[in-house]
């Protein structure tokens, strides 16, 4: 499926399902666990799982492991869920995605390799914009 069409579907789903309701920090664990049942075991092991930054760090590690395993379909799913949190999250959730998830994922993209280009191609527009913003700010 075309990435643009998929992004439009995700955004439309957000509006229809949540009626512009914001995702709060205490909802992130459930969202991640529902979307990715295989992450639950890792989420249970993190220190202070109610801390959204710890949960997002675990989510970023999960995404990076999927990249290492070559599971790009599931990586795309991760990016769509991160997009959902970036678009519909409250300020704390958005901040965790911007400063935790995108920053962590950028370590995969900053390396010149064919995989980094593939990852950039899978990123949603909001995630890519945030990544580009961070690059500009850092002067890389």
What do these coordinates show?
- It is a single chain.
- This protein is mostly helical.
- The chain has one domain (3-138).
- 79% of the residues lie in helices and 0% in strands.
- It contains 8 helices and no strands.
- The chain has helices spanning 3-18, 25-35, 40-45, 52-69, 72-88, 91-109, 114-122, 125-138.
- Helix 2 runs parallel beside helix 4.
- It is globular and about 35 Å long.
- The chain starts with a helix and ends with a helix.
Number of helices: 8
Rg (C-alpha, Å): 14 Å
Average pLDDT across residues? 86
Report the principal-axis shape: globular
- Indicate the proportion of strand residues: under 5%
Q: What is the total number of structural domains? A: 1
Estimated structural class: mainly alpha
Helix content: over 70%
Main β-sheet description: none
User: What is the strand tally?
Assistant: 0
Unreliable residue stretches: none
Alpha-carbon distance between the two ends: 32 Å
Order of helices and strands: HHHHHHHH
């Amino acid at each position: 499926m075309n990435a643009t069409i998929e992004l439009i579907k995700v955004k439309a789903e957000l509006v229809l399902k949540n009626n512009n309701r914001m995702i709060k920090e205490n909802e992130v664990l459930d969202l991640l666990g529902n979307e990715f049942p295989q992450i639950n075991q890792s989420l249970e092991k993190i220190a202070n799982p109610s801390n959204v930054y710890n949960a997002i760090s675990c989510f970023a590690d999960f995404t990076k492991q999927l990249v290492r395993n070559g599971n790009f379909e599931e990586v795309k799913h991760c990016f769509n869920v991160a997009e959902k949190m970036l678009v519909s999250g409250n300020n704390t959730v958005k901040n965790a995605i911007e400063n935790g998830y995108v920053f962590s994922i950028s370590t995969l993209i900053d390396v010149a390799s064919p995989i980094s280009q593939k990852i950039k191609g899978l990123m949603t527009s909001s995630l890519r914009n945030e990544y580009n913003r961070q690059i500009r700010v850092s002067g890389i």
